[in-house]
C-alpha cells in the first residue's frame, strides 16, 4: 500500500542552517511511515494571497487563482495527511516566505465553512536564536490558531531554542527523541 504523504513547508533561506538540521531529525523519523515531500519556499517563485476570493465557492480543491510555483503545493497539501511548518523565528514571527505561504492557505477555507485542512495533522519545526519566549511562543500560538480555525489537528512543535550552529542542533538528543515521539503519536 502507498505510504501517506507528509508535506514539509521549509521556510529558511539557509539550506543547511539550524532549521534544516532540525527538519532532518523529523524527516528521518517520518520517512519510515510517510512519503516525505519538502518544498524550499525561499527558492520558489510565488506571492502571498491576493484576496480575490475566487477560491471560496469551489469546494473541489484549493482553487487558488494565482498561477505560480506555490499552486501545485496547495494541491499536495490538500491531499497530504501531515503538514510540517518549518521556519526560523524572524522578528517574533515566522520568516517572510513562510508567512506568504501560510496566507495562501486562505483558499482552503471555503465560504460554506468547509475546510480542506480538516483532520490534517500539523507539526511545527521552529528554530530560534533566543529563548522560548522571544518569538518562538508566538510562532507556536499562530500555528495552533491556524489549526483551530482550519479544523486541523495541532500535533506539536519541534522547538530548537538558543541555537548556535546547525551541528549543535543536529547533536541535541532531546530533539531527536521529541521527533520520534511526534511520529509515534501520529
Ligand atoms: C532577520 C532575523 C530575525 C530574527 N529574529 C529572531 C527573533 O525574533 N527571535 C529569536 O529568538 N531569534 C531570532 N533570530 C535568530 C534565528 O531565529 C535563528 O538564528 C534561527 O535558528 C536561524 O535559522 P536558520 O539557520 O534555519 O536560518 C532572527 C534571525 C534573523 C536573521
Beta-strand residue fraction: 15-25%
**Major beta-sheet overview:** 5 strands, parallel
- Identify the CATH architecture: 3-Layer(aba) Sandwich
Distance between the termini: 18 Å
Q: Specify Rg, calculated over alpha carbons.
A: 16 Å
Number of domain modules = 1
The rough form would be described as: globular
What would CATH call the homologous superfamily? Flavodoxin domain
Map the helices and strands.
Elements: E1 5-10, H1 18-30, E2 35-40, H2 71-79, E3 82-88, H3 96-103, E4 121-127, H4 132-149, E5 153-160, H5 166-171, H6 173-185
Parallel strand pairs: 1-2, 1-3, 3-4, 4-5
The protein binds flavin mononucleotide.
Commentary on this structure:
With 186 residues, this protein is of the alpha/beta class. The protein has one domain (5-185): Rossmann fold, CATH 3.40.50.360. The chain has 6 helices and 5 strands, in the order βαβαβαβαβαα. The chain has a 5-stranded parallel β-sheet, with helices on both faces. Helix 1 (18-30) packs across helix 6. It is globular and about 45 Å long. The model has no long low-confidence stretch (mean pLDDT 97). Bound molecules: flavin mononucleotide. Flavin mononucleotide is lined by residues 12, 14, 17-20, 88-92, 127-130, 134-135, 163.
Amino acid at each position: 500500500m502507498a505510504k501517506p504523504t507528509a508535506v514539509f513547508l521549509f521556510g529558511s533561506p539557509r539550506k543547511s542552517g539550524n532549521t534544516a538540521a532540525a527538519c532532518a531529525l523529523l524527516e528521518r523519523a517520518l520517512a519510515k511511515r510517510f512519503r516525505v515531500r519538502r518544498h524550499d519556499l525561499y527558492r520558489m517563485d510565488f506571492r502571498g494571497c491576493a484576496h480575490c476570493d475566487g477560491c471560496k465557492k469551489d469546494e473541489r480543491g484549493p482553487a487558488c487563482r494565482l498561477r505560480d510555483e506555490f499552486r501545485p503545493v496547495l494541491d499536495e497539501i490538500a491531499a497530504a495527511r501531515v503538514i510540517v511548518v518549518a521556519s526560523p523565528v524572524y522578528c517574533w514571527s515566522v520568516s517572510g516566505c513562510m508567512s506568504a505561504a501560510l496566507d495562501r492557505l486562505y483558499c482552503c477555507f471555503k465560504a460554506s465553512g468547509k475546510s480542506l485542512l480538516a483532520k490534517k495533522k500539523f507539526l511545527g519545526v521552529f528554530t530560534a536564536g533566543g529563548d522560548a519566549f522571544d518569538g518562538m511562543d508566538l510562532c507556536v500560538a499562530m500555528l495552533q490558531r491556524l489549526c483551530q480555525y482550519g479544523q486541523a489537528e495541532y500535533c506539536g512543535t519541534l522547538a530548537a531554542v538558543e541555537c548556535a550552529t546547525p551541528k549543535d542542533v543536529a547533536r541535541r538528543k532531546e530533539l531527536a527523541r521529541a521527533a520520534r515521539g511526534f511520529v509515534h503519536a501520529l
